[in-house]
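Researcher: We're teaching a course module on how sequence relates to structure. For the next exercise, students receive a sequence and then see the predicted structure as tokens, so they can try to spot secondary structure elements on their own. Here is the exercise chain.
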Amino acid sequence: MLHHRIAPVCAPVCMLAALLLVSGCDGSPAKAGGGAKAGPGAPVPEVGVVTVKARPVTLTTELPGRTSPYRVAEVRPQVGGIIQERRFQEGAEIAAGQVLYQIDPAPYQTARDSAEAALTRERAALERAQLKADRYAKLLQSKSVSQEDSDDVQAALKEAAASVAVDEAALATARIQLAYTRVTSPIAGQIGRSSLTQGALVTANQDQALATVQQLDPIYVDLTQSSVQLLRLRQALRAGRLQRPAGEQPRVMLILEDGSNYDQTGRLALYEVTVEQDTGTVTLRATFPNPDHLLLPGMFVRAVVEEGVQPDAILVPQQAVQRDRRGNPTALVLGDDGKVEERKLETGRTVGSGWLIDAGLEPGDRLIVEGVQKVRPGDVAQGVDVSGEPAFSALAANP
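Model: And here is the predicted structure for the students to work with:
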């Protein structure tokens, strides 16, 4: 009797256990922490794509540099004496030939006067010798004087002429020495501080400069570039990968010490022909207009130098370039059949907000730039053209 009472109770329990067992076997409930792959009816993921294009891109390089004056003249006296007067305002603009200092001219005026008097005396002696030589020439024709006397007179005439030439040179020297008492500026530019004042005694060609004049408009910017970079640049130009307008020096832009851009554009003037052995660098010199004297000698600047134009460059957004486990650059491309393909890239440098691609992409490829995390190589995806968005349309123009 007990057995018949238990059986009705066990039947529902056994049916419930069987249902739970069947449910556990078909795997319909999701497993904790797992992600089931989309079935045949799952929607195809959308990804943003841009079409790769080749276009001319101007390549630049940023180099450190310092400014230096276009011309520098250290003003020194060429004669000795006492400085009587300083005729300029410190820090002012100076014209070429402007008188800066006046040295006491009295002893040099006396020397000039003495040289003039000596020249006048010798010229009178030359005139007497000339008259005597003329008379002896006539007398010699009539045999009134001997040939020896005539020769002596001619020799005396030549001596008198030589004495005049010597005194003329002495007078010219005296005049130059007197002119040197007016110390002038050899160039136009801005003058600095005066190292001496009125009453100071100076000597000819002394080591200490009286003042320094610097021409600041235009102004030089001396840059340093590694010899390896210069070698690669020249090889690229020789191979035609980079192009420059014939007969035109590369343009240079400046970034000042405070991070602002200088509003004047310069030109590269020269490449130094020697490599610094200690640093392995080459000095480049650029010339910049400096009408407002905003650039002063010795300022540290950064220069953006245009290396040339790459006519068929491929430039892609930076977010489209990824890295594999080894750090190599890769990108995902959406094929014509809608399948995602991974490409191995060779990147050159960043240009603006994009990567310059040396190899791995071809014009016409549909590069995935948005939704990269949604797909893997081999997946099927639907591409949406996003080249009109501001983040990507900027790359269509030459940066």
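Model: If you want an answer key for the exercise: Residues 106-141 form the longest helix (36 residues). The helical segments are 2-26, 106-141, 147-179, 227-239, 390-393.
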